[in-house]
Amino acid sequence: NKALRSKDRDAVKPWFPYLKLFHAAIEKLPDIRMNLWRGIERDIADNYTKDDIITWWGISSCSPFIDVIKGFLNRTSTLFLVEAVRGKDISLYSSFSQEKEVLLSPATRLRVVSNALESPLLHVVHLQEIYDQNESSSSTPVVPTTKSLTFGTLTDEAGNRYELPVYKPYY
């Protein structure tokens, strides 16, 4: 995931054989259309503005159960509600099958449904997966290019700076 999210596109090259194998395997699982939850440890809600189209370049682990996600949250976390259309349920293959883990593939495109709900203890972002029905299920994963990927800077309360990938469509 670190390589997939890296600004340095060459960092992904050593992983191409694994990613191809992963993609071939995950595509054999049925698509799951459901609301999913994902939590991350820092507040990046301000990076998500209504109607923006973003891409999550890494493999994203989610769960349909919010109580599973709450164990990953703290006061600076961001909680995502994702309306998934191509999630892949891997609970039968997981050591934690009770978590009902659902994966979103690399390069999952998402639309920000509404501006973030923020309070002192909670930052929630509502996303909707975008899927082009004309895409072939056997297509290879998309690798971001410098034309489609820009980076935004986030500074947290402690002064730590993070560069985050942001998908900007080009025409």
From TrEMBL:
It comes from the Eukaryota. SUPFAM superfamilies: ADP-ribosylation (SSF56399). This is NAD(+)--protein-arginine ADP-ribosyltransferase. It comes from Rotaria magnacalcarata. PROSITE patterns: TR_MART.
